[in-house]
TrEMBL record:
Domain Histone deacetylase intervals: 22-317
Keyword Kinase tagged: no
GO molecular function: histone deacetylase activity
Record CDD domains: HDAC_AcuC_like
InterPro entries named among the record's database cross-references: AcuC, HDACs, His_deacetylse_dom, His_deacetylse_dom_sf, Ureohydrolase_dom_sf
Alphabetically ordered keywords of this record: Acetoin catabolism
Associated pathway: Ketone degradation; acetoin degradation
GO biological process, any: acetoin catabolic process
Name assigned to this protein: Acetoin utilization protein AcuC
Amino acid sequence: MKKDCIFIYSDDFQKYKFHDHHPFNQLRVKLTYDLLRTMNALDDSQIISPRIATDDELFLVHDRAYIEAVKTAGEGRLPEEIALNYGLGTEDTPIFPNMHEASALLVGSTLTAVDYVLSGKAKHALSLGGGLHHGFRGKASGFCIYNDSAVAIKYIQEKYNLRVLYVDTDAHHGDGVQWMFYDDPNVCTFSIHETGRYLFPGTGNVNERGQGKGYGFSFNIPVDAFTEDESWLDAYTQAFREIADFFRPDIILTQNGADSHYYDPLTHLSATMKIYREIPKLAHEMAHQYCEGRWIAVGGGGYDIWRVVPRAWALIWLEMTEQSNISGNIPQEWIDKWQKHSPVPLPTEWDDPEDLYPPIPRKAEITEKNAQTVMKALYPIRSNRQKMNL
Ligand SMILES: [Zn+2]
Ligand SMILES: [Zn+2]
């Protein structure tokens, strides 16, 4: 059992709940945890309870007035018109009881991961409750209230003075984190996502490269709708390797939204479990190559909570702990326990069948378009490298 990996977990993650019919459902963290426990892949000694983030920690990136509004909203005392100014009480981000406490726990979870890794008590840490990348300084957005990853990055800078590479593989653009560090050359953000042409939040264009001193430290690869594994992985692999080589981070924070899968009801990509094997594998390799192993992974989106997220997120932990050479069947015990709660048949194998979906007619066109986007996104670092070689 690997002793230098930790899994931050609490049943209290379930308290981050908008309502019964909201797509954001933290049951997926419990399903993942339970899958790993059933497999004996997660030991008691590796499970760490999260702490709750303090107000001062939230102030690192959030406005005081916003935090006060979230607290008041969670007590049921915030007038609707004021709430809406803070992005609270919308269809995406409804108000729910004690929303401040539930949200601050998710931030605390990611901070707990940071403290373990940066104190040297762990090499890798997984905080699946976090990954709320749409949270803004003074506004809730896209199911996200506080931005745990942004707080964690600022906390890493203030407390440990390190250079952070943030890699976001959620199907949606990692806008909240990008904008918070847009002018900071010591934080490099890389987001690969479905193009914002038809999808929330609409940003993440390849031309968003940062501003001021931070120009050149923001990377975006917006892939086309219906993008498949091979094209997606080509883009991810080339970009991650070249950006890591360019930036030379001290620590890598990955956001692991699992909503690029074909089954995901909110997005239009055509990825399968193949990408969820490769995403953590490369992050792991890069962390050892550049950061002496320092790697924090958080969760994120993922709206097929039964068929996609538990497998995808379990694979992050299995990769961290060097147990990822798993294939074949999902433990029957886990299926038996959860099938009665699931509206769809649970997957029986780790990998998806080859014929998961019918052939995509525009495949060649999409592949070509994505290759061009990668070239555009990486052009500055490639041309700079060429100049240095001359
Ligand atoms: Zn997403
Ligand atoms: Zn490792």
